[in-house]
Structures are given as C-alpha cells and as structure tokens.
## 1
Amino acid sequence: MVTGHADTEQQTWEDRLRAVGLRVTRPRVLVLDALRRHGGHRSADEVVEALRRRGTPVTRGTVYKVLADVVAAGLVMVADHGPGRAVYEIADLWHHHFVCRRCGTIIDVPCMEGDKPCLRPDVAVGEIDEAQVIFRGICDACRAGGPR
Amino acid sequence: MVTGHADTEQQTWEDRLRAVGLRVTRPRVLVLDALRRHGGHRSADEVVEALRRRGTPVTRGTVYKVLADVVAAGLVMVADHGPGRAVYEIADLWHHHFVCRRCGTIIDVPCMEGDKPCLRPDVAVGEIDEAQVIFRGICDACRAGGPR
DNA sequence: GTGAGTGCAAACGATTTGCACGGTG
DNA sequence: CACCGTGCAAATCGTTTGCACTCAC
C-alpha cells in the first residue's frame, strides 16, 4: 500500500500532518508516533516520559502544544476521565472507554456502529458530531483479584 | 409523604445524609440545597459563589470536601467535560449531557431507558455500574444565532 | 528569508492538603 | 467528650503562556 520501506509507517505522519495544514516537525512526529506505538491512552506527561526514555526528549510545554494542535486537526482524540486526567490517543477507530473505579485502567470498548457516533438522543438539542461514552465500574482483573 | 412543613424539602437531606453514614452539618446541607435549587450543573466555584450570595458562605476548600463526600456517597454525580471543568448535580434521575462546542452550554439529555445505565458494551470488560455519555456539537441556540 | 514551532521557565487556575478550632452524635 | 467536619491558607498538579531562538517551507 505504502511505497517505501518504513517499518513504522512513520512517513504517514508527514502526509497526515501536511494534509491538515500543519508543518512537519520533529516533536510532532515524535508525539504522534509515541501515541501510535503505545496503542492505548496516554496522558501528556506519559508522552513526555516515553519520549524522554526513548532518547528523544520533548519539552512538556511543547507536548501540550503539539497535542492541542493535532487534536484540533482531528488526528488525535482527547478524553477527559476526571479532573487533570486528560488522555490522548490516535483518532483512527471510534470507540468508547471503560474506566475501572478501582485500578483506574482504561479499556477500549468498540462502538457498535462503526466510525460514526453510534448514539443519538431522542430530543432535539443541536447538531451532534460526537458521542463520548465512559463506562465506569470494576474491571474483570480487579474482580478476579478478590473483593478488595 | 414527609411529616413536617419544610417547603424546600430540606429535611430530606438530613435523612439522606444519615442514610449514607454522613453527619448532618450546615455546609453539607447548604451545598446539597444549592445544587438542588439550581437544578442544573454547577462547578465547585459556582456553588461557593451561590452560597456566598445567599448570605450563607462556605469556604472553597470545604465545598470541595463536601462535594467529594457526597459524590462518594452517591448523592451527587460529577461529570467532567474537560480539564478543570468538573460539574456537579444531584443524582436523582439518570441522564446524559450535550455540550455545545461553541458556547459551552450543557443540556441534559434524558436516558432512554430510565434510571439505569441504558447502554451496554458488547464485550466483557467488567462490571459496569455507570454509563456516562457526553454528546458534543453545536446547540440549537448557537445555530440559530448564525454560522458564527 | 519569514513565520510557524520549539524550548525554557514562569504564570495560572482548579483542586488538595495540613493543622487548629468547633460542632455533631 | 471524642471525633468528624470546618475554616483558613499554603501546597500541589495539570495545563497554559510569554519570549527569544530555530527550523520548515
């Protein structure tokens, strides 16, 4: 599909960035790559930490700016699961989140209707372009771990 | 139903507080009452401000503590619509939220299936006790106000 | 070369915490 | 009267911002 050898598909980020009118810069590619490598949800600080560990440090402030840009551009989704708990992930497939009350783990829950908002309220409130669903409860791992 | 004269049903808070094992104190009743009086969603600061205006001031710190307690006790629901945007409301009837991207207004969206989580994922992730749904888009008021 | 993007560090605002006093049970 | 809950103020933490420098285009 992609011409070239990139085993990380990294080149795609350049295309995607350009496609949304953002310049291709090192921090942007690194942040996006960190998110895709991880595959799951990461907070801004976790991205900073991951990049630092990889030997390609990016400033905290810059990470926030990059995240704000790519979220605004639609490349990344942000989900707030509580105060000071914003998590980011690549906006590829739409899905919901299950948050464990006990261990805080976030588990992806596929959206039953594909890549568009799968829910619609039965009252007219406005034009809905997104339906973010957060399920809360106790995850199987914690339940298996005993009643406490 | 309730013996007494309380036109504000305030006495109920005492019962509800006791029922969940919390002491009945002035700040707690005031905070709960402020939330119910308002009927909608209020941030911690808005509660502080409302109580101050009513001539029954409660410290910001105390409001946060009270809110944390009553949320933990299940008397109040908290919804996070973004970083530093936690809003609280009485946990009486289950419903979802529609957040306008333009003006920030929060509109209640009734849950189609009554007072229990109306949604269930089709994968087993754990024991779900809550499904919080946040719809995002442009509210009718903003749309009526023109394309910008 | 020019403006967008970055790094650094200080500023910010919501929420939390420590401690001494006061009220509830 | 013992303890929980409050008030006050300082601390904490995630996130934002200002400014000079650098790099992408």
## 2
Amino acid sequence: MSITADLIRGHTETIILAQLLEQDSYGYKINKAIQAKTDHKYELKEATLYTAFKRLEESGCISSYWGDENSGARRRYYAITPHGRREYLIRSEEWNTAKVLIDRLITDGGSQI
Amino acid sequence: MSITADLIRGHTETIILAQLLEQDSYGYKINKAIQAKTDHKYELKEATLYTAFKRLEESGCISSYWGDENSGARRRYYAITPHGRREYLIRSEEWNTAKVLIDRLITDGGSQI
DNA sequence: AAAATATACCTTGACAGGCGAGGTAACGTG
DNA sequence: CACGTTACCTCGCCTGTCAAGGTATATTTT
C-alpha cells in the first residue's frame, strides 16, 4: 500500500531536512533514498521535491551549490543551515505531538468497531 | 503546542468517521469532542468541518437527519454508513502505515544531530 | 430590557502544497 | 543511433483548509 498525498502533506520539508542532516545531497539522490527507506511505498514527485527545495532555500533552511562532476549530469547539492537544523527540531517535535493526537482521534474510535 | 493544518490535512474525514463509530452526532458536538480529546491542541475549523461532512455524505460514507429538539438550535445529526465503516478501516490502516513511514523518514535523521 | 455569550448551522472565495505533464541535457549500452 | 538512466526545472490544475461573513435560538449577564 502506498500512502496518499494528503497524508504526507506538510511533512515534505521536514523529510528533506532530515535527509540533509545526514549529509549534503542532491534532489535525485534524496528521492531515491526516500524510496529505499520506505520500501518504495512512498516517493516524492519531482515537482513536489523541487518546489520544496525552492521554499526551503528561500526561507534560509538550506543552501545550494553545484557539484563539480566531470562526467554525467550536473548535480545541485543542498546543505542544511543552522536555521534549518532548528526548523527540523521544531517540526519533528510537532510531528511527534501530532502523531499522538491523530492516533488518539483515529484509533480510539477503532476500538469500538 | 497546537498542531498546524498541514499536519492534519487528509485526516479530517477519518477523524470524523472515527467519532461517528461511537454514536450518531452533530457538527458542533463532534468539534467539541475533538477539542476535548486533544486537550484543545487541535480543533477543526467550522468551514473545514462542514465541507468534510458534505464530501463524506456525497461519497456515501455518512447519512444525515435533522434532530427533533424542542428547544435550542436545530441539529443535523450524522450517522456512519456501512460503506463509511469500510472506508474508516481502510483509512485507519493507511494512517498506521503512513505513521511508521513518516517516523522512519523524519526520526532517523534526528538520531544524528 | 438590552447586550453578551453559547449553541448550532451554512457559504464564499482565497490560498498553499502536491503533482501531472511537459521540457532540457549528458551519459552509457545494445 | 535509439533507448534507458541520471539529473535538473517550470507551468498550471486540483483539492483541502479556513478566514470572513451570514442566519437563528436560548441563556446569562448587565
């Protein structure tokens, strides 16, 4: 089962930031990493990915630079900024809060089927 | 900390269905129940609530009828249909799947701060 | 008696994020 | 040389959220 867009909505940027905590990376690779981590149950669509990069860079959460590949397609690498790290912490806490609340709202009903 | 709209997006209908599993209810009360269950960290905005009811009724997940109050404001009660119960099961499973995946994507990075 | 608050419903229009569809370009393989 | 893979990007639509506004009745406060 793959997960639908609206379930992931709002998490895209946090997921990207989490990826960049590990190391600088570029769009294509980040997307492959996400697919691998989720056993291909979820993938960021390219349009979603690149618009998210744009927002994150505009808000100062990430910075970018061109890689110096001497073969193959050019790559734009992204790095997380100190501001981005703070944002990541905030958003991952928000996720943990939301997760518990949504669980309570959805699953409590489920006990009564 | 209250949770933002985009984190809840896509869960609204599932949350409403979960509420209606317990018993028939009406908009105002459902909203109050949600606030109570989340210690007022989350509330459905009225516009969101009523558009969700509309979608759920159009898709056959719920049905509605007017209550026969002899005092106070009129109430439109909603009941979950068999189709709605099936939808609830599907969506709550989707939530459980998504929850694990999002956790993996967001929190794995967090271990490396 | 008037004003304020709570209960209870509903619609309109704007906004933002996701993404389908389309485009560009370099490289490797058959 | 065609095709698949890597790799980037943009435009415009769609959909769910919600601020703002509206209606109506009952209770509580001033």
